[in-house]
Amino acid sequence: MGKYEKLLFQILRGSSDANISFSDLVKLLSHFGFEMRVKGSHHIFRKDGVEERPNLQKEGSKAKPYQVKQVRNLILKYKLGDEE
Hints:
- With 84 residues, the protein is α+β, with helices and mostly antiparallel strands.
- It has one domain: Hypothetical protein (Metal Transport, Frataxin, Chain A, 2-Layer Sandwich).
- The chain has helices at residues 3-13, 22-31, 65-78, and strands at residues 35-39, 42-46, 55-56, 58-59, 62-63.
- The relative contact order is 0.20.
């Protein structure tokens, strides 16, 4: 199991949303083909075919738990990661 698969499993499991590294979450979204734009402390992601635009901010070195939940909902809604 590769790094992205482990992170994806951890996010989908939902038991440690407060313990997801911000940089790992950014890399995962980039891996799924999202384009990132930074405006101040906001990291805004977009992807063709995805209506929502996740907006992430750091909380120390971790991602905010509610934003991890938003990313999990996107993964499930658009079945990201299934194409690999």
